[in-house]
Amino acid sequence: MISYLVTNYLELRNLAAFILFFVTSHTYGQCQVTASTDTLWACDGGSITYAATGGSNYEWSGMSSMSCVNCSTGTATVSRNDTLIVKSTTTVNQLAVNGDFSQGNTGFGSAYTYNPNTIWNEGTYAVGTNPNAVHPNFGTWGDHTTGNGNYMLVNGSTSGAANLWTQNVAFPPNVTVTMRWWTLTFVTPPGSLRLRVNGTIIGANAPTPNVAGVWQSTTRTFTSSPTGNNLIALQTVSSALAGNDFGLDDISYAYSCEAYDTIYVQVRPNPTVSIDSIVEIGGCDELCANWLPASTIDTTAGMWVWDFGDGSTLDTSFSPYHCYSSPGSYTPSVLATNEHGCSATVVLNPVFVGQTPTWMDLIPQVSGGYWNGNVFIIPSVNPSISVIGNFTQYMDVDSLFIDWGDGNSDDSGPYFNTNAVTGQHDYSSNTTRARICFEAYNPVSCFDEICIDVVFTPFIEIPNVFSPNNDGMNDVFLPDFRGAETVRWTVFNRWGRVVYDSESATEGWDGTVNGRPVAEGVYFITAIANGAAGQEPYKLQGSVHVFH
Do residue 342 and residue 405 come from a single domain? Predict the structure, then answer.
């Protein structure tokens, strides 16, 4: 009677494990890849965009012009009929369902008896964080995952091979799978486990660690079934009564698989196009042109789109006529499309429409300078000027000629798309007035001129030493007059008597009175310089020391 009850108990327990096993079936990622289309076409030298989905990584082959061989999408240049093949390799490395037992007693099957409170009897297990909590003879050890989480706490069966942990897993067909699990011995001698897949024992038996309290991993490799459905079982094989107690944690799978798809690439011919142009030039500021194409395109089936390069409306006629009324440089082009939808763009010879450059103003820039009516006044102390010539709009200027009005000139250019040019000049100290003229020429010799008048402020400097001893050095006294059109200067002795009086800015005093040398000493000077354009005279008083 006792034997009957035990037998029926074991049958019921195995039946429960059988039922639990088949409700814990799980599917892992399948290898697949899908190209975006079966066929792609492009014109000769054109570009296709290839793409694939469904994989975790991609490897394309078949065309050397691909922009990326390891991307989900890319582009390629087409020069012939070709084939693109995409391969996707999926790598899976993850825990079994509830393989770390963090969800408790779920997600797997077992022929062992589950008891969350005690595993005193052989063939029982619990899921918890501390083996000592379910068996007083066991120590206290944390799980392999975090050190304080759940793991499977096992009192090994003495009845030989028994399914400790089972799952029904769907892998891709015929892939190599590596399964890993971790065990920790509670009491030595250690227990022993083996892996059985679809009824086949995989590898040798794997003992738990020989030392209690130490986690140890075990791996076994197998090939998944052709159908992809796999019955995974970790079985205990030790029948020892003493020891044979351990923890199980972090059950995981790792595998890789490949999938392929194909895209067929077709090339279509491009048209050939040549253009003859008839150009009529209508002066500096207008140009008209007529273009006549020659092509392999059937004129009844082809399409023409002319871009004249000046922002005007696109023209779809076969042989267009167009006039450019705005000056500038233009690059016309035509897009020719054949009956296959393939196009050729022809860039035509550049068209230049000459523009008469038109000045707006000249702006002199001088430190201390100012306008006096229509004349610009420049201080003589620094007779240097910068002049900005402004055009009425942005334009191309082939050459610029500047006449500075003192016998000097500058040439420069070309300038492209500019609205201003600048000139710089230093005048001599005796310059009194000048007329500055800017002349701008375009490439077809149309030009415009603009001028301004400048005058220089009168200025005087008096030397303070004079030695009229006929030694060839400093023998003549002459004030330094700048920007003066008329001058008057007088020399007095210390008693106020005039010893020399002059209205010359170039002839000086030789240090004599009535042909006789003056005595050494200090002589006093008054000088007046009258400038151009009605400027105030410049007056200066000073002295000079005469030495013989």
Answer: no
